[in-house]
Amino acid sequence: MGELSELFVPRRVAVVGATEREGSVGRAIMENLIDDFDGDVVPVNPKYDEVFGVPAVAGVGESDADLAIVVVPPHIAVQAVREAGEAGIRNVVVITAGFGETGSEGASREQELTEVAEAYDLNLVGPNSLGVMSTPTGMNATFGPENAMAGEMSFMSQSGAFITAVLDWANDQGIGFKDVVSLGNKAVLDEADFIDAWGDDEDTSVIIGYLEGISEGREFIDTAREVTQDTPIVLVKSGRTDAGAQAASSHTGTIAGSDQAYEAGLEQAGVIRAESVQELFDAARVLESQPLPDSDDVAVITNAGGPGVMTTDAVGDSRLSMASFTDETLDEFSETLPEEGNIYNPVDIVGDADNERFRNALDVALADENVGSAIVLTCPTAVLDYDELAADTVELQERHDKPVAACFMGGERVKPAAEVLTEAGIPNYFDPARAVGGLDALSRFRDISEREYDRPTTFDVDEERAREILSDVEGREDTRLGVEAMDLLDAYGIETPQGDIVDAPEDALTVAEGIEGNVVMKIVSPDILHKSDIGGVKVGVPNEEVFDAYEDLVTRARNYQPDANIIGVQVQEMVDLDSGVETIVGMNKDPQFGPLLMFGLGGIFVEVLEDTTFRVAPVAESEAREMTEEIDSAPLLRGARGRDPVDVDGVTETIQRLSQLVTDFPAILELDINPLVATPDGVKAVDVRLTVDPDQL
Amino acid sequence: MGELSELFVPRRVAVVGATEREGSVGRAIMENLIDDFDGDVVPVNPKYDEVFGVPAVAGVGESDADLAIVVVPPHIAVQAVREAGEAGIRNVVVITAGFGETGSEGASREQELTEVAEAYDLNLVGPNSLGVMSTPTGMNATFGPENAMAGEMSFMSQSGAFITAVLDWANDQGIGFKDVVSLGNKAVLDEADFIDAWGDDEDTSVIIGYLEGISEGREFIDTAREVTQDTPIVLVKSGRTDAGAQAASSHTGTIAGSDQAYEAGLEQAGVIRAESVQELFDAARVLESQPLPDSDDVAVITNAGGPGVMTTDAVGDSRLSMASFTDETLDEFSETLPEEGNIYNPVDIVGDADNERFRNALDVALADENVGSAIVLTCPTAVLDYDELAADTVELQERHDKPVAACFMGGERVKPAAEVLTEAGIPNYFDPARAVGGLDALSRFRDISEREYDRPTTFDVDEERAREILSDVEGREDTRLGVEAMDLLDAYGIETPQGDIVDAPEDALTVAEGIEGNVVMKIVSPDILHKSDIGGVKVGVPNEEVFDAYEDLVTRARNYQPDANIIGVQVQEMVDLDSGVETIVGMNKDPQFGPLLMFGLGGIFVEVLEDTTFRVAPVAESEAREMTEEIDSAPLLRGARGRDPVDVDGVTETIQRLSQLVTDFPAILELDINPLVATPDGVKAVDVRLTVDPDQL
Asked: What InterPro entries does UniProt report for this protein, alphabetically (chains A, B) (predicted)?
């Protein structure tokens, strides 16, 4: 592990506020530490000479500890942390509540705490934390009622109560942990820090967590990408739904980012997002212990046809598929299986199958090069010994080194077999869908671990010109820009239709004469948002009508709003919509993840069908291309219904250029290119709207 | 119960093929019956005087039984059933395998069995069945290793092995059953028969099942609709996915209907379809024991904020919503809950909550008129006694008579509490999503039980004219019809554009002159499917060009295919697509459910986005309207993006009229109206294609 290592493997732990008082947190922590911790425990409390027979010191400065657990009341907790820092203790866990979660006084106390931690360069967990655990040293520095069993999952949670619930349940299920941390208010250390540390920890094979928010989106993505090259991360991020986001916001007191940003950010980070506690642990358990499959083709071996069909459905619902066996395998099955069975997948070895037939069939299937993983699916029969089958399954899984999921159906009679399987890292489920879910998680993580993250392309752009255009809003009350900012796109190499904004009818004519064919004319005014509604747009204007059209547009605008700030009239080349597809490329700012890019097809696709996709900027070429591929309406870009495909490369490049623009200028708060017309010959940004924060320029 | 009653409550059961031979089915059934059955058991076997000390008879005719279980080998099984019928035994369960599931010899044996059953009017279960159980009399007439516990679920399964697995598991979970039946090959009695019987059975409060197919779709729908006015039905119908359907087909040897038909048919039947075994039992357990909620507004009472957020997410995922409390409730919570808690939903009564605070909060929430159901959600703490909370939860649920779900999180320490809850019909889950899932099922069934099924409207149509048009295919090799059958729609009152099919250019002109504006002209030939591709369609033809256009169309058709059967040229009014929306109304035949209606929006919506919806015909007005409402693109019919809404009533009526047409004429194998153009002023069927089976006319 990296810098945080001492936090989980301290030599000597000081408990600041240790006491024997019944029902107190200081007592609970002392008890938990004394029970199992391999190192030394030092009670810190000026009121006592000893606590539970352990000699106490008056101040943390005298403790000679390398980890301090702070449980004293809030008004003296910050001072205790400062003393720890002064004494050279680098690792501090603040259990004490009454900080940021409790209003303005608490918030300023938390600010003070953060400053102290920075001054002394502390690894500080909390405040408002249940504590930390690490099973290799038996350290339970929490005030919870349960200690963790040893295992290879490391677990962080933004809810301390959830940790106590999980531990009680996990102990019953035989699930163990390496480290456990209750993040509390995350005043200093946050999820990215622990992911980083556990990524370097050889004893952690899976990182799991429950989060209500992510503190620094971009940092999280960058850290998680590196870690997930080797170590899977599975998280429940709650607040997925509108109702949940509202509840999370009220629970943690932080502004919730949009779930679209979390969904995009977690995906870009390589995190497997679980939607429920069950999904979280189902995925984590197999990721902890099983090898990754070489292929997504699953063999199902069963003594019962009906459940075999159910399992096939579950495979159909997942990213996996049913394996097609090689001829050798089929020959082998033909020779060894009864005629009324099924040699094709799902392999039905029939209800009278004994252990030998089961073992042989599984062995043959796992040996097949077309098989990436297998599911052992059984219903109880008089001739099948579940315990023996469990042992065979474990042995064959290890020998073939392919992932195996177990679905030994039944209740009481399955329990000893299930224990053998669980012990060997093969969780057993009654429901085939959950067995398939585990294999699905392995397949997803294999793809994540094989990802190559390209760097975002840096295009040659005119940043100075862009800055000038954006500066237009300085000193203005209304900081929105519209078509008058089309040059901004131009500065970043995003193609726009030929044309210009003019403020005199004769100039309009000059521009129009330079454009082939009729033109589109639009009034340009920051005060007039819905131009079409007031007749502020004229389409297909021939040159001879341009002069009058100019006058008419200005008159309409004046009539509509006499005091409107009229910048002029845009005279623009007609873009042929018939041969093209209207798309929208947009960006808005997420409080946690920063610029969030959006892509979709124009009109009904975004507005009615909500067929959109999101990415946190900056994006690499591959990510921009994925955006053009993963919307439901993507086939329309690629020539559905006999039409020519449009210039998808151009769309992809436009997304990347916009990504670069909004990354270069955090002052751009939101921006929409709508429509970006894509034709077989290229793309053109026909209209743009953005909002700028001049203070960030 | 109705006619099937004797099957489950026999006085005296004959076991035809009873034996003591080790490992035999006849022995297993004898043992199971002797163990617990309240009535008499009669072994039938000419080889023995007695079996397990029970006097045997030589033939079933001498048994004086009212239920015969047949386990003798296939070649003598049919004769045994005949003898039972002759002896006046009305109820027979054929355990014996080797019938329809094993090839052509077996199939003809099964046919013979069906004929015998019909001759003697037998209630016949199987063949190839595990048997039947009924807990009130302790009858276990199966050869499975487990007996069921008593309960109020009745359970049917097309997989016998699945029954043995479920029983073993259910006994461990404390889940009981009223009747259990292994359907086997369903030669006589099928799922609809058991649904019908259990619907009348006062001791069955939920019907559950595992099916791989439904024998008679329409009968099933009609039966289930009636039963689900009172009794919920929850089914796993496997073969949902393509892979699963293939596996199901190979397992049962029947042609799989499309899952679109099953999805539509089960929904129309009022059946709750579970996607997994877990979903099946999670739904069934609450439906068995809990009251239906008056509203979908849920209160969540918790001592832990984090899990409260997770639960809120699960509510957001479901059809339920978070309750908004009345002012009285909020006042009450303000007065009684600690300041750091949350009085809004999810109600956070904070980690130091004792049993009294929990009980009071739940009591207040359940008393709130805005609350339809509640979830009790806890993490383990030192101050909360789970057992006491379980008792309180049960008491308050009963007192307020509102559904309550429990999510007492934890492992070992939860077990006694979970038993108390389960006993009272409140299943406890570690995962909040599953607790929410149970309440969701209650809400769904409330809506199902309140449904009023309208009868399909019978429109005044010209059936004779329709029959004449359809008869055109008689004697033809190609039994497809195209625009030449537009009159068919007309005969059923579906509006078509003005126009006619003519076979001479001067007639074309006459027709065109009778139509306002320019016309569309299309070649009409059963041999030319893709008219546009050969230039067989002319749009916007003015009257002066009609004559030449006629000649040109015919020439093109002749050049394309000299021997084509050219019926003539269709001259049709231009339908204004700009003000309208193109829709598609179609039908194809499903092997189980018969005519299956499809509706969607034309072009990309059906072809690229697959945005379609299905119903089994005939449909009532309400069902046809639902079809226009439930596609994703439905807003486009109702005036999205500032356009005028189209004539949705007209679309709805067209679906109903098509439903009547295809119901009246089973000879129509498939039919597509594409497009049916819907404008604000009405709907017009612009083109039609159908395939007819002349033998069914």
From this structure: Acyl-CoA_Synth/Transferase, ATP_grasp_subdomain_1, CoA-bd, Ligase_CoA_dom, NAD(P)-bd_dom_sf, Succ_CoA_lig_flav_dom, Succinyl-CoA_synth-like
Measured CA to CA, the distance from residue A35 to residue A23 in angstroms comes to 17
CATH of domain A498-573: 3.30.1490.20
With CA atoms as reference, the chain A residue closest to B348 would be: A251
Interface test with A, best of B163, B310, B349, B637 (most A CBs within 10 A): B310
- CATH 3.40.50.261 corresponds to the domain B298-449: yes
**Residue A469: pLDDT over 70:** yes
CA distance B63 to chain A (A): 30
Mind listing the pLDDT tens digit for each residue in A526-578?
A: 788 777 778 888 989 999 999 999 999 999 988 888 888 888 999 999 887 77
**Which residues of chain B from 586 to 625 reach within 8 Å of chain A, CB to CB?**
603-604, 607-609
A137 contacts chain B (CB < 8 A):
no
In this prediction, residue A667 carries a pLDDT of 96
In CATH, the architecture of A291-449 is 3-Layer(aba) Sandwich (3.40)
Cα B245 to Cα B262: distance, rounded to the nearest angstrom: 11
Which of B309, B358, B584, B604 should we substitute to test contact with A (largest number of A Cβ atoms within 10 Å)? B309
Structure token digits, residue A217: 């989106």
> What share of chain A has pLDDT > 90, as a percent?
81
Of the listed ranges A220-234, A598-612, A619-633, B674-688, the one predicted with least confidence: A598-612
Say yes or no to pLDDT of B2 above 60. no
Q: Where are the alpha helices (DSSP H) in A472-524?
A: 486-491, 505-513
Q: CB of A20 within 8 A of CB of A51?
A: yes
- CA–CA distance, B609 with A631 (Å, rounded to integer): 10
List the strands of the sheet with B499-502, edge to edge: B499-502, B568-573, B519-524, B537-541
* B residues 33-72 lying closer than 8 A (beta carbon) to A: none
The CATH number, out of the four listed (3.30.470.20, 3.20.20.150, 3.40.50.720, 1.25.40.10), of the domain defined by the range B581-696: 3.30.470.20
Contact B302, B253 (CB under 8 A): no
d(CA B213, CA B203) in angstroms, rounded, equals: 26
The mean pLDDT value of chain B amounts to: 93
Q: A596 has which bridge partners?
A: A588, A616
- CATH architecture designation of domain B498-574: 2-Layer Sandwich (3.30)
pLDDT at A252: 65
Is A277 an 8 Å CB contact of chain B?
yes
Where are chain A's structural domains? 5-287, 291-449, 498-573, 581-696
pLDDT of residue B252: 64
Amino acid at A605: F
Tell me the pLDDT tens digit for each residue of B585-621. Answer: 999 999 899 999 999 998 788 888 889 999 999 999 9
pLDDT at A548: 92
* pLDDT at residue B228, rounded to an integer: 97
Pick from B160, B305, B315: CB nearest A251: B305
Q: B169: nearest CA in chain A?
A: A411
Q: In chain A, whose CA is at the least distance from the CA of B409? A: A165
pLDDT the model gives residue A258: 84
**Contact assignment for A351 to B313 by CB distance below 8 Å:** no
Q: Hey, do B498-574 and B581-696 end up sharing a CATH topology, with the first three levels equal?
A: no
pTM: 0.93
- Judge whether B407 is closer than 8 Å to chain A, CB to CB: no
Distance from CA of B615 to the nearest CA of A (A): 23
| Measured distance CA(B455)–CA(B620) in Å, rounded | 6
Homologous superfamily of A5-287: Succinyl-CoA synthetase domains (3.40.50.261)
The one-character DSSP state at A483 is G
Choose, out of A236, A312, A358, A638, the residue to mutate when testing the contact with B (most B CBs < 10 Å): A312
